[in-house]
Design goal:
The protein has about 100 residues and is mainly α. The protein is built from three helices and no strands. Helix 2 runs antiparallel to helix 3. About 15% of the residues are buried.
């Protein structure tokens, strides 16, 4: 337990920030999963509507990752890696859909 008032306050702030960061990271993971699901749907049925759904989902995910990086929840390289992984997945699917 903290021995001083300032140390007690720092513990409280750290707990508050941990919960805030946890929520942000969870939201990013959820959006990434939804994006992969949308890409999978597009793979099964490559229509213009499903492609637009993938692009919309990708945009939302990129936005959330960028905000997490800006607020210091994610490291800049971590955010870049997540975005790169999504872009790579989409590129593979689009290339296979156009060659078929």
């Amino acid at each position: 337990m903290a021995n001083s008032k300032s140390a007690l306050k720092r513990i409280q702030i750290a707990d508050r920030n941990r919960l805030h960061n946890k929520n942000y990271k969870s939201a990013v993971r959820t959006l990434i999963k939804k994006c992969f699901i949308a890409v999978g749907d597009y793979t099964e049925n490559p229509t213009l509507e499903s492609k637009q759904k993938v692009l919309d989902q990708m945009s939302k995910t990129y936005s959330k990752i960028d905000k997490a990086v800006k607020r210091g929840v994610l490291h800049i390289n971590n955010g870049a890696r997540k975005k790169s992984r999504l872009a790579k997945q989409l590129k593979q699917v689009v290339e296979t859909a156009t060659t078929e």
